[in-house]
Amino acid sequence: MALIEAQNLRKSYGSIQAVRGISFQVDRGEVVGFLGPNGAGKSTTMKLLTGHLLPDSGSAKVGGFDVTESPVAAKAHLGYSPEGAPAYGEMTVREFLQFAAELRGLPEPSVKVQNTLSLCRLTEVAQQTIETLSKGYRMRVGFAQAVIHDPEVLILDEPTDGLDPNQKFEVRRLLKEMAARKAVIVSTHILEEIEELCTRVIIIAQGEVRCDESKEKFLQRGSDLNQVFRQLTA
Amino acid sequence: MTMSSSTTSISARKTIGAVFRREFAGYFRTPLAYVFLAVFNAFAISLAFFVGYIYEAGVANLDRFFLYHPWLWAFLAPAAGARLWAEEHRQGTIELLLTWPVTVWQTALGKFLAGWAFLACALLITTPIAFTIGYLGDPDVGVIISGYIGSLLCAGACLGIATIASALTRSQVIAFVVGFLACFILVIVGYGVFDELLAGILSPGAIEEVRRLGLWRNLEPFTLGLIDLRPCAYFLTLSFAGLGLSTLIIERR
Fold first, then answer.
1. HSE of A194 in the Cβ direction (CA atoms, 13 Å)?
2. How many CA atoms lie less than 13 Å away from A10 in the CB half-sphere?
3. pLDDT < 50: residue spans in chain A
């Protein structure tokens, strides 16, 4: 069974068709790189998969549960870090993760928080309020709330955006550590990330899937990935 | 997956509790909460003494104290309620709430109860005036308690309206202004401000019904020691309407 299933998803904002019939499946152990120009419909697709937005037509399933029909069950299987990793700035990292664990109804929330803090190397800033953290730490807090319940499905919208090389390395390391047991979608603008992180590539442009293939196949398209990207999204 | 209704309700209670604790503690994270409590207390007491002449009246009751509460709640309930949803929009955390396995109404209820509890704190701080009256005269304790119950219900109604305004915008300032205006209309409608405007459209009986929608009209019976069904229903309807509408607004994003 595919852990993530998008079936002919469509979503319009007013007269603008942001997503025009997107379908794909993601299995356990796959890390799918979501690529595409800004405004291509990447974030909207992710929002449809996570239940933040409801599709005009089509369906999204997470862990076998339809996101529209059984949202709570679907969301229980899902970890999602939205673009920019929003968090309650006035809370400390520990308080925020505790809140996330409680809202998810996890057993022994404090233990889960402690484990997640050390997994994401946040222990040293656990008592700091999130608004005082550097961007690297804040992205990791967003990552931490997404993995606190060890979900089968992980969806991350630009988790390395705006990070310095060391911080990027850190986030990728975290992802690789847990990817084998999960179905993961990561959106990114960084083509090199595909090579390092992903097992599969989906390119979206103008609300449609332009390319959906394994990393190996994608890399054979040419030595200059930027050019390949430009051709596919033109 | 089947869940028995009892586990569902336990997890709902836990969710509501977690949201409540976060929001209630959230008020006291900034000095603003203490400013709010001080302002409420100062106005509640000074209006009673310097505008209502509660002392000079020489009667041992709190009528002239509660008389100004609709005005206070119209102003301060939107101030306390403005952040409840607007701040989620501004910080982007609304996206977390909507993608965590909780329903919007659970979140909405937790937020509403936290705001209401905060307003209850503001009300609680004014109780020395009741003890003062008790020291100076021999007031009817039941009447005072019923007045406080009425004021608390009135606060909930204003907060309900404020949460709708807060759900509509990412700006706390706009949420406050819109919430205040809506509550303000409910205050002045009871004083017959719109009577002339409505005279051409509605029958005199209907105009009287409109006036009965005023906040003070519904609070007044409580200050006389009467806990009637109609005013209770009025305040609770406004509270639940606020809860329900804000939930709908958030769901229909």
1. 24
2. 10
3. none
- pLDDT tens, residue by residue, B16-37: 999 999 999 999 998 888 999 9
If you measure CA to CA, which chain B residue comes closest to A87?
B93
How long, in residues, is chain A?
234
- Extents of the domains making up chain A: 4-77+152-233, 86-150
Q: What angle do CA B137, B143, B144 make, to 5 degrees?
A: 65
DSSP state for residue A121 in the 8-state scheme: T
Q: How many CB atoms lie within 10 A of CB B94?
A: 23
d(CA A9, CA B103): 23
**Residue contact A82–B101, C-beta within 8 A:** no
Cβ <8 Å between B99 and A89:
no
Structure tokens at B80: 């306390």
Q: How far is A102 from chain B (nearest CA, A)?
A: 6
* ipTM, two decimals: 0.92
By Cβ distance, the residue of A52, A75, A88 closest to B91 is A88
Closest alpha carbon to B163 in B176, B152, B173, B150: B176
Classify burial at B49, counting beta carbons within 10 Å of its beta carbon; exposed 0-12, middle 13-18, buried 19 or more: middle
Put simply, the answer to whether B253 touches A90 (Cβ < 8 Å) is no
| Minimum distance, in Å, between the CA of residue A87 and any CA atom of chain B | 6
d(CA B161, CA B186): 10
How far apart are the C-alpha atoms of B44 and B34, rounded to whole Å? 15
Closest to A51 in 3D by CA, of A77, A32, A27:
A77
- With contact defined as beta carbons under 8 Å apart, do A36 and A191 qualify? no
Of A177, A220, A178, whose CA–CA distance to A195 is shortest?
A220
- Burial class of residue B63 (count of CB atoms within 10 Å of its CB; 0-12, 13-18, 19+): middle
Is there a contact between A102 and B14 if contact means CB atoms under 8 Å apart?
A: yes
Q: Residue B2 and residue A226: Cα distance in Å, rounded?
A: 49
pLDDT tens readout for residues B175-232: 999 999 999 999 998 887 777 777 778 888 888 888 888 999 998 899 888 888 999 9
Residue B77 CA from chain centroid, whole number? 5
pLDDT category of residue B2 using cuts at 50, 70 and 90: very low
Using alpha carbons, list the distances in angstroms from residue B129 to B61, B70, B123, B219: 10, 18, 11, 19
Pairing of strands A57-62, A65-66: antiparallel
**Does CATH number 3.40.50.300 belong to domain A4-77+152-233?**
yes
* C-alpha distance from A60 to closest chain B C-alpha (Å): 13
Distance (Å, whole) CA B159 – CA B27: 15
Please give the Cα distance from B70 to B218 (Å, whole number).
Answer: 10
Cβ–Cβ below 8 Å for A86 and B22: no
Is A135 within 8 Å of A159 (Cβ atoms)?
A: no
